[in-house]
Amino acid sequence: MNLHEYQGKEILASHGVRIQRGIVANTASEAVAAAKDLTAETGTGWHVIKAQVHAGGRGKGGGVKLAKNLQEVEEIAGQIIGMNLVTPQTSAEGKLVRKVLVAEDVYYPGDSETSEFYMSVLLNRGTGKNMIMYSTEGGMEIEVVAEKTPHLIFTEEIDPSVGLQGFQARRIAFNLGLSGTAFKEMVKFVSALYTAYVKSDSSLFEINPVLKTSDDKILAVDAKVTIDDNALFRHKDIEEMRDVTEENPIEVEAKAVGLNYVDLDGNVGCMVNGAGLAMATMDLIKQAGGEPANFLDVGGTADAKRVEEAFRIILKDENVKAILINIFGGIVRCDRVAQGVVDAYKNMGDAINVPIIVRLQGTNAEVAKELIDNSGLAVHSAVMFQEAADKVKEVLA
């Protein structure tokens, strides 16, 4: 689950990480009120107006601007709220901005003593350890840094059974070229950041930039946070931060009915039970000359209701030209799935307007094939993988 910048900063602050303070606003007038409150609290006269969308590169699309007075705060907030923000990480249509973060300006005018760093915490799946990735090249896209100056990227791996050690935090501060008070502040920052990552069950914390001010304070100017969905049951407060308006609406609907669905860009819809079989089915579709339109795992209870819900979800994608149902009958019997397909097909009537290939293998597979073949519906049955692939190729021709 992705979070907005202001939400990620809330988590950071709750674990002792110094942040660029800010107040979220939904309208231009709220932005002015937020700016006044920040001035009273921090003394800042200038404010940074930041679009709150789940995408990086906001500044490049005009979603991050500096306001030097309250009139500019109102004007800029009014321009950003309601715009479709296009960044390198969005589609060509962009994302609708519904709110902004009004943040204090932490860059002192004419100050040349500040430094920007990059820092992220994530899981290294190759080693099974958490990893802090960091660089002196803050403010830049880490992909660009990796491509052009890979020697400026450092990593520190942390054994989750023992946690971040003091010498590791000190090594990070040293590699960033810090000394004195800034060195000590960075050690504290790294320790608090790692604690926030672990305690919130995150899969990613990315801070770009981490700022060293001229008076040697270390703070997070930005925060990109992704929470592990599988751990949300432990964090009801974080789960309440979910902004479904930022997510794919079809995926949101699928989640609401208990389906594991990921939207893709292909032309063949997939309905499968089991993640491994779903991946194999997607490969099968590509080998047949098609492109998978989705990943959809209906789970072990593929009854008529669940199959019908899966049909409705898949058919919301106008690019779908065929649907491949690939079920292995282990826990669930194939004949029950077949009956579910037939019932769902009849219930939906003309709503199903694309060819359907059904491959059922496992318990009662023969009975299931007879049910499909004798249903009188425009459903193509298959038993073997290759047979299913041939039928996909046939209906797409």
Automatic annotation (TrEMBL):
Catalysed reaction, written as an equation: GTP + succinate + CoA = succinyl-CoA + GDP + phosphate; succinate + ATP + CoA = succinyl-CoA + ADP + phosphate
InterPro entries found in the cross-reference section: ATP-grasp_succ-CoA_synth-type (IPR013650), ATP_grasp_subdomain_1 (IPR013815), Succ-CoA_synthase_bsu_CS (IPR017866), SUCC_ACL_C (IPR005811), Succ_CoA_ligase-like_bsu (IPR005809), Succinyl-CoA_synth-like (IPR016102)
EC number annotated for this UniProt entry: 6.2.1.5
Cofactor binding, note field: Binds 1 Mg(2+) ion per subunit.
Residues binding substrate: N273, G330, I331, V332
Enzyme class (EC, first level): ligase
Domain annotation ATP-citrate synthase/succinyl-CoA ligase C-terminal: ranges: 271-391
ATP-grasp fold succinyl-CoA synthetase-type domain mapped to chain residues: 2-210
Binding site for ATP: K50, G57, R58, G59, V106, E116
Residues where Mg(2+) binds: N208, D222
Purpose of the protein: Succinyl-CoA synthetase functions in the citric acid cycle (TCA), coupling the hydrolysis of succinyl-CoA to the synthesis of either ATP or GTP and thus represents the only step of substrate-level phosphorylation in the TCA. The beta subunit provides nucleotide specificity of the enzyme and binds the substrate succinate, while the binding sites for coenzyme A and phosphate are found in the alpha subunit.
PANTHER family reported for this sequence: SUCCINATE--COA LIGASE [GDP-FORMING] SUBUNIT BETA, MITOCHONDRIAL, SUCCINYL-COA SYNTHETASE BETA CHAIN
Quaternary assembly: Heterotetramer of two alpha and two beta subunits.
Name of the protein: Succinate--CoA ligase [ADP-forming] subunit beta
Species the sequence originates in: Pustulibacterium marinum
Underlying gene: sucC
